[in-house]
Amino acid sequence: MNALIHRLRFSAPLLSLMLLAGCTAGPDYRVPDTAMPEQFRYQDGWRTMPEQPWLAQGTWWESFDDPTLTYLIREADQASQTLAQAEARFRAAEAQWRLARGDYSPQLSATVGGTRSGGNNSSASELFTGRLDISWAPDLWGRVRRQVEAERAGLAASAADMAGVRLTMQVALAQGYIRLRTLDQQREILEQSIEAFDRSAQLTRNQYNAGIVSRSDVIQAETQRQSLRTQMYDLQRQRAQEENALAALLGVAPVAFGLPDSDTLPALPVLPAALPSVLIARRPDVVIAERRVAAANARIGVAETAWLPDLTLSAFGAVQDDTFSGLFDAPQRVWSVGPSLALTLFDGGRRRATRDIAVAQYDEHVANYRQTVLDSLRDVEDALAALQILAEKATQQEALIELAEENERVINNRYRAGMVTFLEVANAQNLTLDARRARLNIISDQLQAAAQLAAVLGGGWQVGDPVIERITRPPEPARP
């Protein structure tokens, strides 16, 4: 009876510590508040919607209705070396998370060794030992849980980084492809203008031969036509550069990549009438910033556990014999089992400094998260403003083209009648050419602004898309 009471007294402190195993040091994480607006300024019917779990990136590029663009983006997803780097970083983050989880489990080790010893007054002797050690440090104060929590947040941030790299690559590829197709259209406009200028030059030569106009009109017509021909080489150079840039995004050598000319541009996407402001919550940079806040919050808890004692349960068993083969017969056996409790009593302020560092880093990440959200809102406003203003500009440009073409027809008729010089014809032709080029540039800007909107919204505007979990959040590991 006395022995039982003695054992209970010895075990009481240990049992008390074990009951505290469910406690976790440090503050529980809450997402910091941010300034989310009720609506966007440049929206024209776009409105906010209730929050929902947007952690997906839609196939926004399909809205451009261009099979070649869709093919290129799918190829880049498989072959991009920049994306391969991000995937490698994600695998490293996943391994780091698994490494932190390993602290939940006991450690088991085995050793086999032999020694030979002796002295001046004693004969040499040999001793062979086989030993098995097991130790386990229960997570009494949640240090391991907080560390795993921090690594899980880091893993999610790495997944968001990979999604961000993929999105950046997709947008860069889409915008580069739009620029390339715009150059194709510029070439077509230039070829049409050259044909018109050729006709004007021929008309001028005929009138010169008939003695109606002077030699200076012929020279001016030839100069204008030749100027357009030299501009064609500039377009070819720019197209080659855009094509080489696309090859780099696709992860192939420029010599192995080429796109034939096309006489069409991608279609301008039809945007939905409702824009959920919460879409920016799925932006990779916003997710990364928020997950870093979560990781920093967990590391505060890790720092606070340094003030609490560490409990370690250990045991070992060993066999000994004076011959190695005797280890497997009937050797001497020794064993030991018992707990140990360790507490740092004085460290010169190191623990407090470590916690202060963790708190300061948390505050830094909170401020960075809030600024990232503000920057995201600004980016969305910029994209919406660009789309709205460009749409109005396109309407005005169409009216300008109609006026320029009508003016060119009137001037050509007056020139044939000998009422004006070729200088006015040249000016009218250049005005029409510039108006057509400007219209094409506006359409190109609209297409690129639509791609940029997909980027600033974190991967598209398709409100009805199914949620595809790209920002993985691993399940909580089972606690031993």
From TrEMBL:
InterPro entries: MdtP/NodT-like, OMP_efflux. SUPFAM superfamilies: Outer membrane efflux proteins (OEP). It comes from the Bacteria. It is a lipid-anchor. Residues 69-96, 180-245, 377-413 form a coiled coil. Residues 1-25 form the signal peptide. Keywords: Coiled coil, Lipoprotein, Membrane, Palmitate, Signal, Transmembrane, Transmembrane beta strand. It is found in: Cell outer membrane. It holds the Pfam family OEP. The keyword Signal applies. Belongs to the outer membrane factor (OMF) (TC 1.B.17) family. This is Efflux transporter outer membrane subunit. It comes from Alcanivorax quisquiliarum.
